[in-house]
Amino acid sequence: MIRTRLRMVLTQSEMNRIKISESHSEKIRITADVHGMKCYEARRFINNIINIVRTAFQLVIIHGYNHGTAIKEMLAQNFSNDHIYEQFPDPRNQGVTHMLIAA
Questions:
Q1: How is the beta sheet containing 18-21 ordered, strand by strand?
Q2: Short-list 80, 76, 82, 81, CA closest to 96
Q3: Nearest-CA neighbor of 80 among 52, 54, 46, 53?
Q4: Rounded distance, CA 36 to CA 64, Å?
Q5: Hey, is 73 helix, strand or coil?
Q6: Residue 50 CA from chain centroid, whole number
Q7: CA-CA-CA-CA torsion for 26, 28, 29, 32, nearest 10 degrees?
Q8: What whole-number percentage of the chain has pLDDT above 90?
């Protein structure tokens, strides 16, 4: 159902950047790879995911670290969405940011 909702708005290229993990015992986890995107593209992509899913889930954003930190800095400093209730960098990988999204 989540995949169907996302397909209505996102392009096939954007859908190829997403991995959705659903299990009965765990919260939904969506991994989004924004490597190679411009900051404004990544912002729109991430906001679309958050606003389309409409349920509580964990969003893992893979933005990379070695070839620039613009997206990482954008997420940390001036990215906001009313559905985000927690956001933190991955403690083991500087190229990943985690967001916990409320319904």
A1: 18-21, 28-33, 57-62, 96-101, 84-89
A2: 76
A3: 46
A4: 9
A5: helix
A6: 7
A7: 170
A8: 83
pLDDT at 17: 97
Q: Where are the alpha helices (DSSP H) in 24-69?
A: 39-53
Q: Which residues pair with 28 in a beta bridge?
A: 57
* pLDDT tier, 25 (very low <50, low <70, confident <90, very high otherwise): low
Rounded CA-CA distance 69/57 in Å is 25
**pTM attached to this predicted model:** 0.91
17, 33 Cβ separation under 8 angstroms: yes
Tokens of 52: 């389309």
| Cα–Cα separations (whole angstroms), residue 68 to 5, 12, 36 | 32, 26, 10
**What are the Cα distances from residue 75, in Å, to 53, 78, 88, 95?**
19, 6, 10, 12
**Beta bridge partner(s), residue 37:** none
